[in-house]
Design goal:
The protein is an all-alpha fold. It has seven helices and no strands. It is elongated and about 70 Å long.
Length: 216
């Protein structure tokens, strides 16, 4: 097998590993959404215990990227992709961390008096989930317009985040004895918003991979 063919196979493996990690992330988001909606402790524990798998994937991909650079001295377009992947997997791993963080607060909520979560959570999660999914698709296809759309969608998440925070504050005023439960919702609200931010961070690398220009 020629050196070039072997190199292309290594690049294909790198892309496959990123897609495999992305699949784990989207599944974690789905489980997190279900756990939060039903205050499910079993699903929450599943998320927390599974976080190490995604951490390992991130470290493995980063090491593979470094090894490729050292061994192959990639050309400019390949270097852009490899360097961007090292940044991308860091943001993907943080999304998984936030799923685990939310799961921890679901466990805490399950031990207290049930209170109604902010109305905005459902829509926030759906938009954030679509942002992560489209970011991954734009990475695969190098679809710059799709990546730009992900960035624009973040404004809607920010608006819902502010509305949810206002709603939580109002509920605390109405029912101050439930402040511990609402404090958990404040942090969950922030984690959802941060997950969307990490999707934006990934999306911003797509134009660079595709054209060499960091446009956003």
């Amino acid at each position: 097998m020629s050196t070039r063919i072997q190199y292309m196979k290594e690049l294909e493996k790198l892309n496959h590993d990123v897609l495999e990690m992305s699949t784990e992330i989207t599944e974690a988001i789905e489980v997190m959404s279900l756990a939060l909606e039903s205050c499910d402790t079993k699903l929450s524990m599943q998320l927390i215990e599974g976080d190490d798998v995604i951490d390992h994937m991130e470290r493995s991909i980063e090491k593979y990227c470094i090894d490729l650079v050292v061994k192959e001295a990639p050309i400019a377009s390949d270097w852009r992709r490899i360097a961007s992947i090292m940044r991308i997997v860091s943001d993907l791993e943080r999304i998984a961390d936030h799923c685990s963080d939310i799961a921890g607060y679901v466990l805490k909520l399950s031990k207290g008096k049930p209170v109604i979560p902010p109305f905005q959570f459902g829509e926030m999660i759906q938009i954030m989930k679509s942002m992560v999914t489209d970011t991954i698709t734009s990475f695969i296809t190098l679809d710059i317009p799709m990546a730009l759309d992900v960035v624009e969608r973040d404004e809607f998440v920010d608006q819902l985040f502010t509305a949810a925070m206002d709603e939580i504050c109002d509920k605390v005023k109405e029912s101050p004895l439930d402040i511990d439960q609402y404090a958990s919702y404040i942090l969950i609200n922030k984690y959802i918003e941060r997950m969307a931010d990490h999707a934006v961070n990934v999306a911003k690398w797509i134009p660079y991979i595709a054209s060499g220009e960091y446009k956003i």
